[in-house]
Structures are given as C-alpha cells and as structure tokens.
Design a protein that fits this description.
heterodimer, A: alpha/beta, 7-stranded mixed sheet, 4-stranded antiparallel sheet, 12 helices, B: alpha+beta
Chain lengths: 391, 168
C-alpha cells in the first residue's frame, strides 16, 4: 500500500487545473508563431493574445489596454513599484510590514536609491488600518502599495477603504493580489490603480501573471527590447502561459462563490478540531477576514520545521514560519509584525487547502497531528505559558 | 553478442529488477528527504529519550550531571543529563531533551550515543564538527544554531565535576 499524500500547501503554489492544461496544450501544439510576425500564423497568435487580454480585462472590469502580461507575481510587483518610482525619480512610498518579499525587497532597494519608504505596522490580526495609511501620506507620496491578502496568515486587507483614501489624495494605489484570485477583483469598485495577479496560485501555469495599470499612470519599463506589452514588458509573449493564466482566472472567478463556501466550511472545521483536540495552540491572522483556504496555527513548545517534517513523513505537506526553515534563519516577518514572540512564532504551521482537499484528508491530518505534537512536546524542554505568546 | 556481453546484460537486467523491487518496498515512504539518512534515522527514532514526565523527574534526581544551553527565542534549546561511572571516569548514560528542528534533534540524539562509555576528558573535546560528521553532514547554515549538544554535554560534565569537588 502506498502512503497517503495530502497537499496542504496551496498558498505556495497550486497544481494545474486540467481544463487549463487542455487549453494550453492546444496552444503549445498549434499556435507557436510569434504574435509580432506579420504572416498568417503570427496574426493568428496575435488574435489569440488579444482575446486573452480582453477576457482578463472583462473579469477585472478594466480596459484591455490596461493589462500587461508578465512572468508572474514577482515581476508584476517589481514593475509596479519600481516602474512608478523610476518614472517619478524621487518621492515617498507607503507599504506595510507584512508584504510579500517581492514587495519588501523592492522597497528596500528603492530606499537605498534615495526613495523614502514608510512600512506601516499592522494590528495583531495582521490588518492594515486605512486611517494609518491616510496619516502617513506626504506631499511627495508617489505610491501606496498594500497587499490584498496575506500569503502567510491569510488576513484579507480592507482594500476598498485603502483605495478610497488613495483616490481622495490622488495617489496611485497598487495591490498585490497574488493570493486573492478567488476574491472580488473589480478594480473600479475597489479603486485600485495597479494590481498584481499570478497564475501559479490559481491553478494556472507558473511563470504567468499580469499587472493591471490604470490608464494615465506612467511606468518606467524594467525590461527593454522589442516593445511588447505597450513597451512596458519587452520579450516575445509566452502565449501558452497567457492562455493558461486567462483560463485559470476565468475559472477562479466563475467558481469562487461555491468554492469559497466549501473551503470556509472545511477550514473552520479543521481549525476547530485542532484547537479542540490539541492543547496550547492558537490561530494566527484574523478569524473571519481571512482567505477561505488558510489555517495558520501556532503550536507552543515545538519547533515548526520538526512538525513539518514529521507531517511530511505521514504524507502531509505544509509550510512553517519557523526561523529554522528559512535561509536566513529568521522567523517570519509577518508573525513578527503581528507581535508574536519568537518563541511562539517558531511553532507556526501554515495549512492551505485547495480544490481537491476533502474532509477525510483534514481528519487524517488532525489524527496524525495529535501524536506528533505530543511526542515533540515530550522531548522539548521549553514550556511557554499561553499568555506569554505576544511581545 | 558474446558470452561476456550476454552475462553483462543479464546482470544489468537483474540489477534493474532488484532496483524496482526495492522501490516497491520503499513505496510506503517518500524517497525525498531534506537531510542525510543518518539524520532521518535519528530524527524519527531519537535515542536515549525519556518516556514520560515521571521518568524525567526520577532521572533528574539520579543524574550525576545536568546541562542546558540555547534559548527558545533563537530557536533551539538543549538539555542533557549524564550518569558517570566514577571508577573509570566514563559516561555511563546520556539522556536529553531538545526543542528545535530536525538537525537539532538528530544531532543531540547521535551525540547521546557517541558518548556512551567515553572518558569524560574525551567527551569534553567533542566539537560540533564531530557531530556533523557522524550525521553524514548538515547544511552549513544549520550547524551554528542547531548543533549545541556538545555545549550542553560540556555543561553537564562541568556540573558533575563541580558536585564532585563539593563532595570531596
């Protein structure tokens, strides 16, 4: 008998939906020409590219000319933040302490280049306060960049309210929506000026994504060359990936209501089971303003990498915010920002559910988790008190 | 095909078959693992642990030396207890507890095996590199933070020597 394999790391990346793969396969096989070529094959490819752009634009309530296809989340975030910064030359950027490293490292880089950055604090659930955003706006503020939903703790930020603040002050607002493919993506309603999306988190291909850029916003390109994507992103278009991304986004948005409802049920069931059956555990992130598939739970007195590897040994794949798992041996900057003491952050495990996740899988996970935590606690000389978890 | 070639081919087929069979037997468990096989063995089957709190409490009273290093803030804490054969000045038993990642747990476990029957003077000289070597290697970034067992052991030996001096 082979071992069970339970993938609970969908926030890291998802598998390809077979309906997406089917469309991609057709393109890979049949539409290989360069959309820039003038012959019939080239024009066919160009037509398909245009159709994708229109389909994506319709979904997010934008104009097709406002969609830039990129190689994914990291590139889109870089293009949004550096693109604005370089086009302005100087100024002040507002972001948060819990952004994805793609946002944080980009801002730190710009800081070295002479830009001024405000990294906003978040509350203990990871929420950015729109009033705080408004408070730190300066005359020279050139961009507000706040993520839509956090990849580690799943907290969904008040994007529409931040968008309203940005609009009032006429400052471009970028949001990293990489984890938000199953949420409302209406850029008009949410008052978003730039939006990053990627395919690898929504059952589409890795290395695919977009940056939505509202008309009138000037960006300096980062990649120069043949002038594709309105000159903002040169390089022959990866048509199969673009088709895959488009299909994945369509499916995500079409199925989001039913799927979110199913996942919230499973997620809350899982969280309750863990909290009920294992002592000294707590949930990280907002309990309700939360991604439907995210359960980030801290287990006191044990270290996350050990829990992860014991779970993996039972076929259950998760991730952790423990320092021991990171290259730099630092605890997750998100858990640090929500005020967790390092001792408590070390035992955090992120379970992220997906389309194929079942109640049976979660029951199996809880069943395996109980003895794992128990035995690791048995060999642990650390005994934290529940009231000592915050700084 | 010469007789030699035939023999060689049969050998290859046999080896492939053996490989397949082995893979099937191992199919229960993933072949992918972050560290060495020795780390895996000690991580999933740690040696010289306490079965429960009662055993630990009892052992605390009987142990000849006790040492603890690290802090949960940094991510790793190690606690060691030793029993000493006073006649030969050797370590009779080494028991431990660890809060930490796989390399922390496995390095403490293997150390507790290495020191059995070892002279105290020799045990004091054990370095993190000795432990890493016994484990068949660890990622470089892990060594500094997670291999603390040698320090815990030295503390336990010092504790024993201090108590001995007080007695005599």
């Amino acid at each position: 008998m082979t071992q069970k394999q339970i993938y609970l790391d969908h926030a890291a990346t998802t598998y390809l939906d077979l309906r997406v793969k089917k469309e991609m396969d057709l393109v890979l096989e049949k539409v290989y020409a360069n959309p820039g070529s003038l012959h019939q094959y080239g024009l066919k490819a160009k037509e398909l590219l245009g159709r994708c752009r229109t389909r994506v634009a319709e979904i997010i309530k934008a104009d097709p000319s406002e969609i830039i296809f990129t190689s994914g989340g990291t590139e889109s975030i870089n293009l949004a933040i550096k693109g604005i910064a370089f086009s302005k030359g100087k100024g002040h950027i507002i972001t948060s302490k819990i952004e994805h490293p793609a946002g944080l490292r980009t801002c730190e880089y710009l800081e070295k280049k002479g830009f001024s950055i405000t990294y906003l604090e978040v509350d203990q659930d990871g929420l950015v306060n729109p009033k705080e955003v408004e408070k730190v706006i300066r005359k020279d503020t050139i961009l507000i960049s706040i993520m839509y939903a956090n990849n580690e703790i799943g907290t969904i930020e008040p994007i529409a309210e931040i968008g309203a603040v940005a609009e009032r002050h006429k400052i471009p607002f970028h949001t990293d929506a990489c984890q938000a493919g199953f949420l409302d993506l209406d850029v008009k309603k949410l008052k978003i000026d730039l939006m990053t999306l990627n395919g690898g988190k929504i059952y589409g291909p890795k290395g695919s994504g977009i940056l939505y850029v509202k008309k009138g916003i000037k960006l300096e390109p980062l990649i120069h060359g043949g002038g594709q994507e309105r000159g903002l992103r040169s390089g022959t278009e990866n048509l199969a990936n673009i088709v895959g991304f488009t299909k994945a986004l369509e499916l995500a948005q079409k199925e989001k209501e039913a799927e979110n409802k199913r996942l919230v049920g499973l997620r809350d069931y899982f969280i309750q089971e863990v909290l009920k059956r294992i002592p000294k555990v707590f949930l990280n992130g907002d309990p309700t303003k939360r991604l439907a598939n995210n359960a980030n739970i801290s287990f006191l007195d044990v270290e996350g990498e050990s829990v992860l590897l014991y779970l993996d040994h039972k076929g259950i794949m998760v991730s952790t915010g423990s320092a021991c798992s990171s290259e730099k041996l630092e605890i997750s900057h998100v858990l640090d920002a929500i005020g967790l003491k390092h001792d408590a952050a070390h035992g955090s495990i992120r379970f992220t559910l997906g389309k194929k996740t079942t109640k049976e899988e979660l029951d199996y996970t809880v069943k395996e988790l109980i003895p794992i935590i128990k035995s690791l606690r048995q060999i642990s000389p650390v005994h934290l008190k529940a009231e000592e978890i915050r700084k | 095909m010469s007789a030699g070639e035939v023999k060689e081919k049969v050998k290859i087929i046999k080896e492939n078959k053996a490989g397949e069979e082995k893979a099937e037997v191992k199919g229960k468990e993933s072949q992918y693992w972050l560290y060495t096989q020795t780390v895996k063995d000690h991580f999933f089957h740690p040696r010289n642990l306490f079965k429960n709190d009662a055993e630990l409490a009892e052992y605390k009273k009987k142990a000849d030396g006790h040492g603890m290093v690290g802090s949960p803030q940094c991510g790793d804490v190690m606690e060691m207890f030793i029993k000493v054969d006073k006649k030969n000045n050797t370590i009779k038993e080494c028991r431990w507890r660890t809060f930490g990642c796989a390399s922390a747990i496995s390095s403490t476990s293997i150390l507790s095996e290495m020191v059995k029957g070892m002279k105290l003077e020799e045990a004091k000289k054990i370095t993190p590199q000795d432990i890493v070597k016994a484990l068949g290697g660890l990622p470089a970034r892990k060594i500094h933070c997670s291999v603390l067992g040698d320090q815990a052991l030295r503390k336990a030996i010092e504790d024993y020597e201090k108590k001995k001096d007080q007695r005599s």
